[in-house]
Structures are given as C-alpha cells and as structure tokens.
Specification:
Number of domains of chain A: 1
CATH architecture of one domain in chain C: Alpha-Beta Complex
Number of strands of chain A: 3
Number of helices of chain A: 2
CATH class of chain A: Alpha Beta
Strand content of chain C: 15-25%
Oligomer: heterotetramer
Helix content of chain A: 25-40%
Helix content of chain C: 25-40%
Strand content of chain A: 35-45%
Chains: A alpha+beta, B alpha/beta, C alpha+beta
Bound molecules: adenosine-5'-diphosphate, magnesium ion
Number of helices of chain C: 28
CATH topology of chain A: Mth169, Chain: A
Order of helices and strands of chain A: EHEHE
Number of strands of chain C: 28
Strand order of the largest sheet of chain C: 8-10-7-11-9-12-13
Chain lengths: 85, 251, 763, 85
C-alpha cells in the first residue's frame, strides 16, 4: 500500500533539547564530523487506495493541524513514497 | 555546604545481616534521579553504598552495582540510549559478563540502560496509554533464584512503586519464548498491566541470574511511611537478596 | 560578529538626542520613557531602553501592586518575625526550622504562556520557580501545582488539561522533585485564561543561605547553564529593526521550550558550588533575563558591575545586544565568584558539562556598565532599573454590581433542595463526581510523588509532607488553596478564606503552620473594579496573616488575567508551610481501623452561598462563609496536639463540598466504610441534614479517634471549649458509607462516581 | 551548511503506541483516508565542512549505533540534503 511521509522538525529558532543532548554525546563516541543535530518526527501514513490529490491534501492538513504543533514545529516535507520492500 | 540534606546515616538498619562490609555501587549519570534513594535502600539493607560516577573508568572494589532510575540525558533520544555509552557502563558490562559475574540491578532507567547495553534482551517503548504513570503496583516474583530476588518466595506478591513514561517492555516472540522457557521472567505485573508490556513482564534476568532489570522501583518501598500505603517495605528484599548472594557466593 | 550591528553606544546616544525610539512598542508609557530620559540625563541607548522596558513592566516591577503589597511587610508582629530568616524581596523567603535547618518556598504563575503552548508553558513554569529556590542556596525538595481550567466540557479544555498536566509532570518528574499537592478547579471564568501556578520548596542549612547580591569589588561575574537564544523577546524585535541595522532580524520564537535535563544538571551543579562555598552571590535568570540578573545583583551588592556582553554564549548568533539583555532563555544562572575560587568553579562546571562564560566583574562605581566589544552600551544606576521603577496608585472602587450579587442568596433563588434519604444520596453522589470535587488521580498519577524517598503525604491527603532530616524525622507540610467564587463574592473575606483553608489543611496533617506564600491572580489593574478586588484581597490576606501569626515570605502577582473585558474571578492562591518535629506523626485523611470513633470538630451554620452545591445548581451569589480566625487557630491547635500525642489516626478538614465531601473522601482513602449518625449534631446546630452535609462553614474537621484515646481527646476539646461531637464509627466490614436514617452508599458506587469523571473527559 | 538526514522508524512488528493513538484520532478530525500511521524520528545532522564519504560513513554508523536501537527500530534512510532556504 502507498504511504505518505510527513516530516516535522522543531522550528530553527526554538531550543531543541533532544538535538542538544545528542550533539553533546556524539564526539564522545568518536563522531566528530557534526556540528549540530536537530531531532524531529517522521510520520508514515498508510493510504488504503490510491493517493489522489484529495488524499494528499488531507495529509497536508493533518500534518499542519494534528501531526505538528505550529507554535514550535514546522512541517518540512509531505511526500508520497513507494512501498518499502 | 554541609552534607547534602536528604542523606544521613540512618539510625537503624532493617536487617540483622552481618554483611555491613559489603560495598554496593550506585551509578549517577547526568539526569539520574533515584541514586540517593537507591543508596538509602542499600544502607537500610545493611551494606555500604558507594557513589559511582558515569564518567569514571574504575569500579573500585564494589561487590555489586545498582543502576538507578531517572532520565539520563533527558531520555530525549531513547531512554538509556546515551548513558549506555558512558565509560562506567563499559566497566559494568565487562564485570557483569566476567567469570566473577558482578551482580547488577537496573531499575527503571537503569533497566532501559541494561537493554540498550545488551546485558538484557528486549527494549522499552512508550506506555501504551502514552502518559507518565505513578502508582503503587503489585508484582509477582516469578524467579527467586537470582542475585537480587533470593529473599522472596517464588510466586510471592509484592507492592512497590511504579513510575515511568517509557515502560512498555517489548521483544520479539522468539526472545519472549526463550525468556519464559528459561525462567528468566523475574517479575510480572499483577492485577493490571500498567503500560502494555508483553506478557505482563515487569522485570527480567540474564541467564546467570546476576543481572536483573525491572521497571518498578523497589528502592521506593524500603521504609514504612515513605512508600506504598499499606505494606511499605516490600522492596527491601532486593537489597537483602544481594547481600545473601554475596555471603553465599564468593564472599 | 559585532560588526553586524550599528551599535547604539552611550556616546552615540548622547550625540543624537533626537533619535526616535520604539518605547511604546516595548510597552513603556510616555511618562515612563520621560522618566528614563530624566534619570539618564540623555536619551537611553537601545540596550538601555530594552532593559528599562522589561524591568519596568508590570511583571517585573509590580508597579500597580506594590503600594498594596507593602502591607505584607508592615503588618508583622514579633511572633511572625521570630522564624523568618529572609523576608519578602529576595528570590524566595527563608524560614528557620531549627537544628540549623532552613526552608524556602514560593509560588509563581505561568498563566499566559500556558494558554499559548500548554505543555511548554507549564513546564517552564516549574523550571522557573525551581531556579528561584536554587538561587537561595537550597536543594529543591518538592513542587506543587495549583491549576484552574475553563469548563470541563468546553472543546478547548482537553487541550489545555493534557498539555498543562503533562508539561508539569514532564518537567517536574525529570528533575526528581516529588509533586506533593496542588489544585484542579474547573470554572468557565478561566476558559481562555487558565491559571497555572507552580510552587517549589527547598531546604538548606543556615550557613548555605545565598542572596542575590554582587559584593566584593573585583569579584567576577559568570553566566552559566543553557545558551542564550531569542526566547521570550518576540515583541522586542522592533529593537533590531529600528535601532541597530537594516538587515532583516531573524525570527524570534514566541514560546520558550524547556530542557528539564539541563535544569537537573544545573541543580546538582549549583549544589556542588554551594557545598564548596564557591559563589558569593547567585541569581536565577527568569523574566527579563540578563537585564534583571545584572541590575539586581549590582543594586543589591556594592552597587557596581561591569560586563562585556559579547562574552555571552549564544544559541542564535543574530541576536542584538538589546535582545540578549531581554532574552528569557531558560535554565541559566548568574553568579558572583571571587577570583580565588574561579578555577574551582570551572572544575565544577566541567564535571557536570555545563557551559559558562565570564562576563565581567563587581565594581564600586555605583554604575552598571555593559560593553559591546569594548564600547559602552549601558551606563546606568542599577537601582533605577531594578528597584526604582514606576509606582502607580491606580484608582479603584467597589463594583456597583456587587450589592446585587451579594443580595442574591442561594436560599432565595428557590432551588429545589434534596430532603429525603434517596435525594440526599443522589446529591452526595452528584457532588463527589462533579468536576471540582471528583478524584484528581488522573492528574496526580502523572506526577512522581515518591522520588527522593522523603514523601510522607501527598495527594489526596490535605497537605503534602516532606521529611527534611532523616536522623530526627523533622519535616515540612504544605498546602495551596484558593476559592475564586468566594473571592468574587467578597475579595477581602475570600483571601482570608484561602489562607484559612490552607492553614487548616497543614494543621489537619499535624504540622504547625509557620509561613505563607501567595500568588495573586487577578484581571486588569487598569480596571478600577479589578483593582478594588486586588486591594481588598491583599488587605484581607495581610490582616488574616497577622491574626494567625504566619508571615508572608514571598509570592507573585499575576495581573491581566482576562478575556476581553471580562476578568477571571479574583484568585488569591495561598500556600502555607508548616513544620513537623517528626513526620512519622503526620495524620492521613482516611480512616482504616475498624471501630474507631469519628468526631466532628466545629459547628455548622447555613452557609451555602458560593458553595460547591450552589455551583452545581449554577448559582453564584450571596456572601461567602464567615471567617473566624481565632477558631481556626484553636482548631489547628487541637489537630496538631492530637497528632503529636497520638490521639487521632485520621483527620480531614471540611472545605469545598462540606461534610458530605469529607465523609466520602475519608472513606475512599483506604476503602474503609463508616456508620454516621447526624441527627443530634443537626439538632445541636439548628440546621437540617442537607445543610449539615453541604454547607461550607469554616473551622471544621472530622477525625478518627482510637477507642483508647477518646477520653483524652474529648477532654482536650472540652478544655479548649471547642465544639465537638461523636458522629459515628469506622466500619471496616460493611464496604459502605452509611448515614443512619438517610441512606447507605456502597463504597464501590461512590468510588465509581468519584473516580470516573476526569477519565471520562480526558481519556 | 550541508545536512545529513537520518530517518528511523519503529520496526513493523513492534506496536507503535504513538502511531496507534494518532490513527485513532484522525477520523474524529475528518481525516478518513489513512488506514495506519507510524511515528518515527528524523534527525538532521549539520556537517561543518564538505560531506565526504567518510562523513557519510560516520553518519551511517551513528544512525545504527546511537540514533536507533535495532531491537525496536530500523534506520530507513540516510541522505544528504541541500540547505533549507
Ligand atoms: N494539580 C494537582 N497536583 C497535585 N496534587 C493535586 C492537584 N490537584 C489536587 N491535588 C491533590 O488532591 C487532593 C485533593 O485536592 P483538594 O480537594 O483541593 O484538597 P483540599 O480541599 O484539602 O485543599 C489534595 O491532596 C491535593 O493536594
Ligand atoms: Mg483539605
């Protein structure tokens, strides 16, 4: 079945404690290539039938209203993906 | 500052054990919350609590280790995910797997750290109801042969404190069947499964019985009046168990 | 970095007196801006303007309230001063517990942020009040959360309840602070303006008390904890556009996100600093951020400080100097450290992996000087910023509508009242399942009440109790209370009733009341009727504190709580702290021993106005219950003695919901029933059984007395001439609460009614 | 600065309590097109310099060791993205 992926990230200007905790631990594990980390959410919505424009519009609206908190988060991506093998 | 307010030598110890020489390490990570409580439980059981710092690389001469609850590194990534890589954890993993079989108890966040460290199988995900839950919880002691449970009767029901956000124990069916088959389910929730854990599992042990992890908090049920309403001290047995184990074993 | 801005230096300001400044956008009034110019003898720089505007805001300067709050300091007797180590004015007051121990506690509001973003608003509310407690040198040991929401069935209420409760839990639980009490009240006056008050309590040894002052010329000033971002300065971005440069300012977040992990580390790190006596003065960063910390530290100390603002570690490099001064980023502290201790200070920071930056040093110039890359952008007398803000004597008058409200009594409304046993039973069940009277464990089960291993009582008992000293068992009890309906009917009495209830709750648990904190939640001070409510409440509270002999040691004022022009009910939340010599003596609110006698202390009058029962019938009018503080004090003595001498095994005070609520709660606490007979007491007091059950007369409590103690207990009450009546016995077998001659209610049925309500609405 | 995105999803056989809660509330909000939802994590790692193969290898290793727990999660994607405008 086709899926729609919705990616939500903390707004850039907002403190991201998750990312902060990770970025602090990376060098201790020898991962030194990264200067910043931000942690967001990825949702995969399974669509029963075909992904019509209407369905995509629903996904976009759900992304803005339910899946993200517009006060502190941005929806950075809504896209249809092929089924995972 | 004078000695930290809430710790003090406790006037009376609850057991008459002669094991006051036993030294039990209590690990503190950034974000650990229940370290002082675990140390108190160790003292009440009659042993000496030894502070272990996550960043240190030596276990000193401790006879056993408690990894207490809390939110190490905020638990932001996954509970226990970052703490698992602490230098002290490297020492603990080595000692637990060594021939000496260092007794290790992981409580709540400590249990999560033990699964992240692969000392215990499975993992924890969010409670099925998605809320933090704090309550008095009845458990059944399923395995009373481990280093941390030998003072309980098999099948005994105890009431201790449960408090967590990510307490739903999960593992694949094969692992679960193995755990059951080998008697490695140490505790099960009784009456109500508070987080959706597979097969009502509240705690497990490794095959050798020296590493035990559970979500509920025995260290919050060691003093009458400061834990669950009715019984209050059902958790003390964890700490007297390890002392008995040390006496009966290599000590 | 600094080249980006056209820095508005002091020199530049002096040379360009006619530059237009956005003082109005920053919330200053014309007269206030003129005052700033007069104080400085020139126009302020952009950075100075930023500082004055935030520090002279209502929130920071108490400009509308301070003329009234003075009474808390003025109406103080020698008895009240006895145990006060630090009074009003510091981050939090400090009370002596004896044996070298001291306790500090304070309640604060985070109402508006919690409406905008409930989770983060509530979470950062806990974070802020806990930092106040740390900054006194104390280890925080518990939190509480008095909450007010709109109607339980309003579509927006679930969002707020879920967000606020999980925010308080999410932050407090992660700090390892047990939540030992609070309130949950639903009333549509709070619909678009929920109240989120947060209380924290901490303990310390006397020698560890720290004050927010910068003394010792040459001592160094350090900022540590989280980096500074653009939090809480949304409105201030005008500064960037108008005063600094023409490049587009980056977006400033409207809400603050809390990082409880960072705060937990900060707590441990501060305690280690105190332990090593490594700081001379310390201040948390809350509202007004660095502006507040620098100006308060400087004006409380030797009077001078010089700092370099480019040294501040930033999360967002586009921040302008003014914005850095105003930022309310969480989880930061500022300290004054002697040069000799600097290395040791740094070692503690490194151990806990806490970031820090040295900003400058203490001077004796009497000036607060802030530089940006060496150029002076602030040169002010710090007292004018921190303590000499505007003071308003706002006009106030008694609302004209109040007479009409007060004369509209519940009795006169002609509402049908239950009379038969069946009707009474239905009314009791309805009461205990109502949104305000129902069981709150849906909320409190999301809070850790065990962490620390020192919690001796928490929800649902009358007060939270925390052990302070493990050797002796010495500890403290706390309760917070307010009834907005009472205060609406009569703010003077309403504030006194809040204190009376909180005092009574603490005494009911067995503790000796010692000190008071308060969070005064009101509407707009620019509305003379609201201002009158405020003035009356402060007068009432301060009078009552004198009479009960308990001083206000600190608190908070939250104004502008209203939707459009409709203010909330005046809601003076009062927290009382009491002391136990040994918390093992605490009295829980439920009975469990079969056969113990149940006594009612106090008499009951016909006082249904403002009651929960009237509320259930949609009525609000008349006068609130009468306050009799002498009687409250006497009742308190009885309950405290009874606890100390082991005369009672259970005690529960009568407050909202009256005797009906108390009987049900005491039965359900340990699932143990009772047989109660009320006819004699009703006859004694000249009221009917309905009134006896539902009236909210003050100064009452029920207790369970072991048979062996009955004589002693009765003698004590008689000697004190306190009305007491034996109304029943504990019945562990029946599984029901029986009101003889009226009805018998199975505990299961009562439990279902009591516990079902919040899950029904919130899942 | 270039960023590397790491996407982590709960394993299909692990019940995802958050996804389940969302799927339950979607229809109540009028979103009827979706038969399932899973909630995972999206990490954005900022790279200071160039994204070399070595850096990408570090990201892959961090993804497998720290950013995900193979008992309950799969790394479903590691990719370099252009800077967000
Ligand atoms: N938001 C809350 N947080 C913690 N405890 C709460 C909260 N709301 C209510 N409680 C607790 O529930 C119990 C009942 O509350 P309430 O009826 O207001 O008590 P009382 O009438 O004795 O003041 C008390 O123990 C109170 O502290
Ligand atoms: Mg009470």
């Amino acid at each position: 079945m086709p899926r729609i992926v919705v990616d939500v990230m903390p707004k850039p200007e907002i403190l991201d404690p998750q990312g902060k905790a990770i970025v602090g631990s990376l060098p201790r594990l020898g991962f030194t290539a990264f200067s910043g980390v931000r942690q967001g959410k990825r949702f995969e919505l399974t669509v029963d039938g075909e992904v019509t424009d209407a369905v995509l519009a629903q996904a976009r609206e759900a992304a803005e209203t339910l899946l993200s908190n517009p006060v502190i988060e941005d929806v950075v991506n809504v896209e249809v993906v092929a089924d995972r093998p | 500052m004078t000695e930290t307010p809430l710790i003090g030598a406790v006037s009376s110890t609850a057991t008459g054990t002669p094991l006051t020489g036993a030294r039990i390490g209590v690990v503190t990570f950034p974000g650990t919350l229940d370290d002082r409580d675990a140390a108190r439980a160790v003292r009440l059981a009659g042993a000496t609590a030894v502070d272990l710092w996550h960043g240190d690389t030596s276990l000193g001469d401790v006879d056993a280790v408690v990894i207490p609850g809390g939110f190490s590194y905020g638990d932001y990534l996954r509970a226990g995910a970052i703490a698992r890589f602490a230098p002290m954890m490297g020492q603990i993993i080595k000692a637990a797997n060594s021939d000496a079989r260092l007794p290790v108890l992981g409580i709540c966040n400590g249990f999560q750290i033990l699964t992240e460290s692969h000392l215990l199988p499975g993992s924890m995900v969010k409670n099925d109801h998605l809320k933090f839950i704090c309550r008095e919880q009845v458990l059944r002691v399923e395995n009373n042969t481990t280093a941390w449970t030998n003072q309980y009767a098999a099948g005994e029901q105890i009431t201790i404190v449960l408090k967590n956000q990510d307490g739903q124990y999960v593992a694949d069916e094969k692992t679960l069947d193995e755990l059951e088959g080998e008697g490695r389910v140490a505790f099960r929730y009784v009456g109500w499964n508070p987080n959706g854990s597979r097969r009502d599992i509240a705690g497990i042990t490794n095959a050798a019985g020296n590493v035990v992890g559970l979500m509920p908090h025995p260290e919050h049920a060691v003093e009458p009046g400061f834990g669950p309403d009715h019984t209050g001290t059902d958790g003390l047995g964890f700490f007297t168990s390890v002392l008995a184990h040390l006496v009966g074993g290599k000590k | 970095m600094s080249q980006k801005f056209n820095i508005d230096t002091v020199e530049h300001a002096a040379a360009t007196p006619d530059t237009e400044l956005p003082w109005a956008e920053l919330g200053l009034k014309r007269n206030e801006f003129d005052d700033v110019v007069k104080l400085l003898g020139r126009r302020p720089t952009a950075a100075e303007l930023a500082m004055y505007s935030v520090m002279w805001s209502e929130h920071c300067s108490y400009k509308s309230s301070k003329v009234h709050l003075k009474q808390f300091g003025d109406k103080v007797t020698a008895e009240m001063k006895m145990d006060m180590l630090v009074g009003i004015g510091e981050n939090a007051g400090v009370t002596n517990l004896g044996d070298g121990w001291a306790v500090t506690f304070k309640v604060e509001s985070h109402n508006h942020p919690s409406f905008v973003e409930p989770y983060q608003g509530a979470a950062t509310g806990i974070g802020g009040i806990v930092r106040d407690i740390i900054s006194m040198g104390a280890r925080p040991v518990a939190v509480m959360d008095p909450l007010r929401f709109g109607a339980i069935d309003h579509p927006d209420t679930a969002r707020l309840v879920h967000g606020i409760v999980s925010g308080i839990g999410g932050y407090g639980n992660s700090l390892g602070l047990p939540n030992i009490g609070g309130e949950v009240v639903f009333d549509d006056v709070y619909q678009a303006n929920p109240l989120v008050n947060a209380l924290a309590v901490g303990v310390m040894r006397h020698e560890d008390i720290r004050l927010a002052n910068a003394s010792g010329v040459g001592n160094r000033v350090v900022l540590f904890g989280a980096r500074t971002g653009g939090d809480g300065i949304g409105g201030a971005s005008v500064l960037a556009s108008e005063s600094f440069d023409d490049t587009k300012p980056s977006k400033r977040p409207a809400v603050q996100v809390g990082d409880p992990f960072a705060e937990k580390v900060l707590i441990e790190c501060c305690l280690e600093l105190f332990k090593g006596s490594l700081v001379e003065g310390i201040q948390d960063l809350g509202a007004a951020g660095i502006s507040c910390a620098t100006s308060e530290l400087a004006s409380n100390g030797d009077g001078g400080m010089e700092v370099e603002l480019t040294s501040v570690l930033l999360r967002d490099p586009t921040l302008t100097p003014g914005e850095i001064l105003m930022s309310e980023s969480q989880e930061r502290m500022m300290a004054v450290v002697s040069p000799a201790n600097a290395a040791a200070f740094e070692a503690v920071m490194d151990k806990w992996a806490v970031e820090y930056s040295w900003l400058g040093e203490v001077t004796d110039t009497g000036r607060l000087i802030i530089n940006w890359d060496g150029a002076t952008i602030v040169d002010v007398d710090p007292r004018t910023v921190a303590h000499e803000g505007p003071t308003y004597h706002r006009p106030f008058h008694r609302p004209e509508w109040l007479d009409g409200v007060q004369s509209n009594t519940f009795r006169a409304s002609g509402t049908a009242l239950p009379a038969t046993g069946l009707e009474l039973k239905a009314a009791v069940v309805e009461l205990v399942s109502s949104p305000n009277m129902c069981d709150k464990s849906w909320v409190t089960n999301q809070y850790d009440r065990f962490v620390g291993g020192n919690t001796a009582l928490a929800a649902p008992d009358d007060a939270g109790v925390i052990r302070v000293d493990e050797q002796t068992g010495m500890g403290v009890a706390l309760s917070t209370d307010a009834n907005g309906r009472y205060a609406y009917l009569d703010p003077y009495t309403g504030a006194q009733l809040a204190l009376a209830e909180s005092y009574r709750n603490v005494a009911t648990a067995g503790a000796v009341p010692m000190a008071v904190t308060d969070c005064l939640n009101f509407g707009s001070p620019e509305d003379p009727e609201v201002m009158w409510q405020f003035a009356e409440a402060v007068r009432g509270l301060s009078d009552a504190c004198m009479e009960l002999g308990v001083p206000v040691t600190g608190g908070n004022v939250s104004l502008y709580n209203q939707t459009g022009s409709t203010p909330i009910h005046p809601t003076p939340v009062v927290g009382v702290l009491g002391k136990f010599d040994d918390v093992a003596r605490r009295t829980p609110s439920g009975w469990r021993e079969d056969g113990q006698a149940i006594y009612l202390l106090g008499t009951t009058a016909d006082e249904l106005d403002g009651s929960e029962f009237a509320n259930l019938r949609g009525h609000l009018g008349g006068l609130p219950p009468r306050v009799d503080l002498a009687r409250e004090r006497e009742l308190g003595q009885i309950l405290i003695n009874a606890s100390r001498d082991g005369m009672v095994d259970a005690a529960h005070d009568l407050s909202e919901g009256g005797l009906a609520a108390a009987l049900v709660e005491s039965s359900l606490r340990y699932n143990t029933g009772a047989r109660i007979a009320l006819d004699e007491v009703a006859a004694r007091d000249g009221v009917d059984v309905f009134t006896l059950l539902f009236s909210e007369t003050q100064g009452r409590a029920i207790v369970a007395v072991p048979r062996s103690e009955e004589v002693r207990f009765n003698d004590m009450c008689t000697a004190r001439r306190f009305p007491v009546a034996r109304i029943g016995v504990v019945d562990a077998e029946s599984g029901s609460l029986e009101l003889q001659g009226q009805f018998s209610a199975p505990l299961d049925e009562l439990r279902e009614a009591h516990e079902g309500t919040l899950p029904k609405y919130f899942g």
